Amino acid sequence: MIKPLQLALDLFGELAGQRRRPAPRAAAPAPAPTASSQGSHGGFVYELRLSARRRSLSIEVHPDLRVVVRAPLRFPKRDIEDFVAARALWIVAQLERFRTTPRMPLLPTYADGATHYYLGLPHRLQFDAEARHGVERRDDFLVVGGRAARDALAARRALDRWYRKRAEEEFNAILAECHLHPRFHRYPLPALQIRAMRSRWGSLGSRRGMTLNLVLIQAPRECIEFVVMHELCHLRYHGHGKGFYKLLDAVCPDWRARKRLLEDTLR
Predict the structure, then answer these.
(1) 223, 171, 230: which is closest to 195 by C-alpha?
(2) 80 φ/ψ sector (left φ>0, alpha ψ -120 to 50, else beta)
(3) Each residue of 52-74: b (16+ CB within 10 Å) or e?
(4) Any idea what DSSP says for residue 230?
(5) How far apart are CA 246 and CA 29, in angstroms?
């Protein structure tokens, strides 16, 4: 695209009878696409990633205790340091949370003593063939009893049934509570389905109602509330445009923090 000033100069040259075309300007050297370095503030070290494509600053705190700061390639270093310093308390708080919160294993095992999660809290499996068949929650234990305690396959089936029953109770209660928000009053309460899904936390359809991923029962309650609020916003907006996110901000102001917690817990 020709800049307005350049266009005016070209037209002036033609009007003055100057047929000679100006020599093309040498192209400016392209900036390096990315650069990486290390910085520190207080009690933590962060990785600084600079990119020619970025237009804003951001900070990421990862479960493995990495802190990544992203910034435009030629952004002043002093401004980046001020940006990090202004958010140092939040960064330290997130690092402490990741240090003290146990991570959910990617592939849970179904053996005596294995750790499983319910509403974000770790529970240990306890096999007791003398206990009632099925699964029972006792403090921070999930007691697998009767025939289900005899082998890992039976324990897995019993635990899946227990999780689904708990999900039906918790998800329906959360959906009813979230639907009470004034922004959803004019819409009927959607029917709820619970499924094991590979790539979605939830979905909303005009005919099938709301579908939630069964694995959410293992996440903290505030994460489940975020997913439900997200899907309820689709009652008004089908896509993820500005209107959708404006409504989500109104009904769940801290949804970004809840989303990060969900992704860190169940990824």
Answers:
(1) 171
(2) alpha
(3) eeeeeeebebeeeeebebbbeee
(4) H
(5) 40
Quote the mean pLDDT of the chain: 82
97 by DSSP, 3-state: which? Answer: helix
Supply the pTM of this predicted model: 0.61
Out of 76, 100, 124, a domain closes at 100
pLDDT tens-digit readout, 47-90: 999 988 888 888 888 777 888 899 998 899 999 999 999 999 88
Out of 8-17, 90-99, 208-217, pick the least confident.
Answer: 8-17
Tokens of 266: 């169940």
Q: What is the rounded CA–CA span in Å between residue 14 and residue 20?
A: 9
CATH number of residue 127's parent domain:
3.30.2010.10
238 and 134 housed in the same domain: yes
Tally of domains in the chain:
2
Domain that holds residue 167: 115-266
- Choice between 110 and 100, residue whose per-residue pLDDT is larger: 110
